[in-house]
Write a structure and sequence with these properties.
Helix content: over 70%
Oligomer: single chain
Strand content: under 5%
Length: 178
């Protein structure tokens, strides 16, 4: 049983590292999504791939390491550790970006983007005050505040994806417990 858990943890961290590097590459596009419309589309498309990539990694673990069977609990544990590992890795990139690289670029880009949208769609003027509050909160946040918020968002979505991924991947045989 302990050997099975150590394999689970080892491979979950391994695939979580791959997922984390994927998220870092995806994050590189994020500062540009408010400036170049193609990057918005690409960022959204790459984000939509994440659940499928997670499913693929858990299924690969099930088939290659576990011999084709895994319980719901085992798949859920693997998925949780994988997304936790990915979230922690991308958090390092988030912190480095917001501490040393951004220097207000993201807030300025968003403000410019929002102002352009308001001139094109006057109905958005009703939201101007709430958007300005959001911009002010983001502008006043420290890099660690932003990193922690993004970490919690990543962990939340990892938990949301845990159940459907585990349900789709689980395949039990009578002689397997986890």
């Amino acid at each position: 049983m302990t050997d099975s858990r150590s394999f689970l943890q080892k491979y979950a961290v391994h695939f979580g590292t791959y997922m984390g590097f994927y998220w870092i590459l995806k994050f590189i596009l994020f500062p540009l999504i408010f400036r170049i419309p193609f990057f918005q589309l690409l960022f959204v498309a790459l984000t939509l791939v994440v659940p499928f990539l997670g499913y693929y990694y858990v299924r690969m673990y099930r088939d290659k390491v576990r011999g084709g069977s895994i319980s719901f609990a085992g798949a859920a544990m693997f998925t949780a550790i994988m997304y936790l590992s990915a979230s922690m890795l991308v958090s390092v990139a988030h912190y480095v970006y917001f501490q040393f690289i951004d220097q207000g670029f993201l807030v300025d880009s968003f403000t410019h983007y929002w102002n352009r949208l308001m001139t094109e769609m006057p109905a958005l003027l009703e939201s101007q005050e709430s958007v300005q509050m959001l911009v002010d909160v983001f502008r006043d946040a420290t890099p660690i505040d932003i990193t922690l918020r993004l970490l919690f968002i990543d962990l939340f979505w990892g938990i949301v994806l845990l159940v459907p991924t585990s349900l789709m991947v689980m395949r039990n045989t009578n002689n397997t417990n986890s």
